[in-house]
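Page header: ASSEMBLY MODEL / two components / 653 residues total.
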Amino acid sequence: MGCVFTAMVLQGAWRTIRTYTWEKTTCRMLDGFVTSAEENSGNYEFRPRYSYEAGGRSRKGTVYKPGYSGSEKVGDAEALKTRYEKGAEVPCYVSRDDPEKVALERPSLWTLLIVLFPLVFVAVGAGGLLMTWSPRAKPGELARQAISRKTGSPLQAAGCLAAFFGIFLLFGLGMSLFFALPALKVAKARSWREVPCTVLESNVRSHSGSDSTTYSVDILYEYEAGGRMRRSNRYEFLGGSSGGSSDKQAIVAANPPGTRRSCFVNPDDPNDAVMYRGLSKTYWVALAPLLFAAAGAGGIVFAFKIRKGKPSVPSNAAGIARGPVKLATPHPVAKIFGMLFLALFWNGITSVFVWKTIQEWKSGGKPFGLTCFLVPFVLVGLLLIFGVFYSFLAAFNPRPSLTLSSNAVPLGGSATLSWTFTGSVSRLSGMKVFLEGAEEARYRRGKSSHTDREVFAKISVYESAGGVAASGNAEVRAPADTMHSFSGGSNRIVWTLKLSGEIPKWPDVTESVEIEVTPS
Amino acid sequence: MSTLLVELEGVEPDGGKRAFAPGGELRGRASWTLDADPESVEVRLFWRTEGKGNPDTGVADTVAFDAPGRQDRREFRLKIPAGPYSFEGKLITILWSVEVVAEPGSEGGRQDVVVSPTGQPVRPPAPSPVKPG
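Prediction written out in full:
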């Protein structure tokens, strides 16, 4: 498929390249006008007529640029009409092989970059075939191969993870540009000249896609600028189309043909005009790509953060022990913001599809399949919103400050855990502290990464008999016959101190913090 | 076809792997017969993981031999670190090996060993209820 697409694109590219062998000459503009493009595209097209000398006689041409099919904005076509005014002598290009082939402009060579797109498919396909056909090592040969250098370094792994999140960041920033650039124009247009304009045509234009239809406001108006009447069909700076036609219908209804109102003209370019120079509510959609970009940036930071110190070769406690150390637990406000970010990210993306589905129901469609598909996503979103409220309530809990007598507990050894509560500790009806040992294995399934966890030890450290004192301490013992902490990159042995304090009819106090258990 | 072998000092248990204490020293001999003159030959002591997760590898110590011949035999000493211990869990297995590797080429000769204070890989007990420390 990639080869077929590449062949088609190359054919078009070759036609573009050939125009650069055409001879440059001078054409005299006879006239030119702006009209609706053919094939109901809704575009506006500049149609020139000019004369030129070629092959020993005078000829007439009507092509502006090979492949030109007009523009959605009438202002673009009007600008061409201004540039190629009647009687002007302008440069043009004539084919050396066929003097009937002529154009005022040649297609940009930048369009040749489009050939890279199908080449990606070709590369993926060729890579797949190479992997399928490449000779595999026989079992005996495999056993003889060196394996101590097979896996990539942690830096490579972090780089791969960062590259993955980099796609999110670039996609988010790229999509944000669609909103940022018009928003910049909105700011610039504050200084544009206000002129009276008259609406000539007013419609809601529909754009049929493969699975849905989107709509845009299409109001054609005329205004006077630069000493003559000009036309534009730009309603606002944010171009494109979106689902839901009711808001667009309302704008069109408020501006029927014949309406006289104010428009705004760029003082540097009289063909550059806009009817509404404010920020419409559609700009809120810009938050979705910004969330993507934020998730991408966060992921890159996370990738290089987990790379630090991995893989760590364990030392025995004598080599690294120091203390006492305060065990860092996340601040309640950080928990709220973490949960809030998750809820906003998840619900931000889900809401785009929910909104689209609601619009389809409103416009008479029956998207049962999409609605059923969205239900679990909405439920997870509601759960995350519940999580935000839960973590908010938990922020008012008494908060323990934990200190361990040593940063490393050796196998067969112990350390003293001390705690001090701030806040209303009398609300706690009981408290438990235990040390948990677990295996964590991260692996790839398809395109996503998963981590499985298996607890292999749960050792009680402290359990209150009745109420809870504002401070206390207990011995944390690591058995001699178990496994120490280990971090290989994708595989970890983790030891976690877990504290839970019960508060009747309220979110419990829960804290967990990893500690280092070292070889004996 | 090239042949690379690692022999380790010490008693080899029947059908089992040689065991070494963490923090100790490991001695042995590497011998090889190669198809072409090698650029370098070295012995590596390394751990690797097997199991559900993506495989991880870490080289703990390396000895590179000076002017290695096409057919040669050299003695080596490798320092064993404090950890990780050999481990057989539900999700993760940590294995230790000594490997002789010749460059260029991808062939190697390997001998698996156990690194643990008890001479056996650490095997966590089946999940049990909370027990006192």
